[in-house]
Amino acid sequence: MKRAYILPLLALIGLGIAIAAIFYGNKPPSVKTQGILQFQPPFESYVAGAGIAEATTGNISIGTPVSGIVMEIYVKVGDHVKAGDPLFKIDDRDLRAQLLTANAKVKEAVAALQKPKHRLERAEQFKKRDPNAISVQDLEVLRDEAAQAEATLTLARTQLEQLQVEIERHTVRALVPGEVLQLRMRPGEFVEGSSTAPPLLVLGGNNKMNLRVDVDEHDAWRVQPGMNAVAFVRGHPELKIPLHYEYTEPEIIPKTSLTGQSTERTDTRVLQVIYSFEITDASIHIGQQLDVFIEVPANNTGEARP
Known about the structure:
Elements: H1 2-26, E1 46-55, E2 60-62, E3 68-73, E4 80-81, E5 86-90, H2 93-129, H3 136-169, E6 171-173, E7 178-183, E8 190-191, E9 201-204, E10 208-216, E11 229-233, E12 236-248, E13 253-254, E14 269-278, E15 289-295
Antiparallel strand pairs: 1-10, 1-15, 2-9, 3-5, 3-8, 4-7, 5-6, 7-9, 10-14, 11-12, 11-15, 12-14, 13-14
């Protein structure tokens, strides 16, 4: 008789477990969220805009004037280089083989010049002692032979210098100081010279940054050259960066840098104001978006839309 109650009891227990699993499984999990950190605008009257950090030199795309295999790479991403520092080297072994021949030709031309040169010197000495010792025609022939040998030597030296320049072109150097921002090649990889493909290496300024600030066209009239400005790092309101005015680009252009706000219009046109700042914090990166406040005269009432 007891066995008759066991199966219904187990069925009831299973049903209860299933109901509990469904109830707790459908319950939305509690998610801990962190509030958005707010910052206080530094001016009573201001225009706000979003700024994009960029290198003061612009992003310099580095390529190679010659095609070949990458033999050596002297830098890595994040390295700071000075003007003239080598960046990478293209295979130049064929040119160095030609350099041996060019050096030998210079030595040969130097040796070939000695004979007509000495003959001319002796003839000129004889001519000084005795004007009738050698005819003018013979003396001119000796001078022509010496000049021809001198020209052969000059040509050999020029070809040698040309090879040295070609070898130097295979080592790509930095023309301006900066930081290596991107590196898109590996040793042993074949690269095309003067290619329009993505750059092999990107170099940017390393001691200062520019901040390209987008100001809404409706507020552009309020911004004048030389106005004070301050930038804030998103998520780090305590990090306030004073800015130095550089210049204002005169053309109003379509807005291409979006802030991600739901109220933002994509058909807005903006005035771009360029500020600069010293790099004192490693948390600022090229391409990073900052919130910028530009001080405007108090009589210009109304706050700008960010």
